[in-house]
Design goal:
Elements: H1 2-21, H2 23-45, H3 49-56, H4 59-68, H5 73-95, H6 99-117, H7 120-128, H8 136-165, H9 167-172, H10 177-218, H11 222-247, H12 251-272
Length: 273
């Protein structure tokens, strides 16, 4: 019993120290996961499931240029994503090409340009992120950005839903659908930027897509889907972070692996019903 108590005490102490040392990073991950869970449900409703993953790759040229000019890669990624979101919105309006098609074209060009601008270890970091922690400014900006995304979705969910169900009815009720579409794309881009720190450009879209798919499998209402999506995203980042710390594994792939496992379980549960 004494040995077991000693082992348990050491494990709890190590866990406490790990959480304390990475508290800011953990808080930021939880808020980004919450934002991703909310955004993902509406991205799925807008039939942006594959486009959501592709849009995150638009950050690559910005990341590459930032690395070349020795500035913070997140700044370059943010500029590229916001410009990409505006370009997607503009092309969608002027050409009437579906959103996923426009994003697919821009994704292909961005991936090619980003691969040319970054190489070796820098490219791996840009694609998969890391768990190196955040400084004070990154934490503050990340917190404010995540809160903005969460607040926007919660306050605008009825308007977003109505615009998806019937654009004509939404317009009659005074909703500027085109402007709302642009704002949603910008919020989506901001959400991707917030996750680049620990998931990278390759995997961030998955944190938006997979929890939303779980919510769709298990919920029978919009609010239910939002709740399940958020819980799944938070569970994935926390369990993924714990596993990555214990076994010294890359954070991004572990988080998405946990989320994918939850999705498979949700398929089993859906099948039983």
């Amino acid at each position: 019993m004494a040995i077991e108590s000693y082992i348990i005490t050491n494990m709890m102490t190590a866990l406490y120290n790990m959480i304390t040392l990475n508290l800011q990073f953990i808080i930021l991950m939880i808020l980004v996961a919450t934002a991703s869970g909310l955004v993902g449900v509406f991205a799925m409703m807008r039939k942006m499931t594959l486009a959501a993953d592709a849009l995150s790759h638009v950050a690559l040229p910005g990341l590459g240029l930032a690395i070349i000019f020795k500035i913070n890669p997140l700044i370059g990624g943010a500029v590229a994503l916001f410009l990409g979101a505006i370009l997607i919105w503009f092309l969608e309006r002027k050409t009437e090409i579906p959103t996923e098609t426009v994003i697919g074209v821009i994704f292909s060009a961005s991936l090619a340009i980003g691969s040319l601008l970054t190489s070796g270890e820098e490219l791996i970091d840009a694609l998969f992120g890391g768990s190196g922690g955040v400084n004070g400014w990154q934490f503050l900006i990340g917190i404010l950005g995540a809160i903005f995304v969460i607040t926007f979705i919660l306050l605008q969910k009825e308007r977003l839903t109505l615009a998806l169900v019937s654009k004509d009815l939404a317009t009659v009720l005074g909703i500027h659908v085109s402007r709302l579409d642009l704002i949603f794309l910008m919020v989506f881009a901001l959400n991707v930027i917030l996750g680049l720190q620990f998931l990278g450009a390759l995997l961030m879209g998955s944190l938006i897509i997979v929890p939303a798919a779980i919510g769709r499998n298990l919920a029978s209402s919009l609010n239910g889907a939002l709740c399940i999506s958020v819980i799944s995203a938070i569970f994935s980042v926390l369990v993924g972070f714990l596993i990555s710390q214990i076994y010294s594994l890359d954070l991004g792939p572990i988080i998405i692996s946990v989320a994918a496992s939850l999705f498979l379980l949700s398929l089993l549960k859906k099948g039983l019903h």
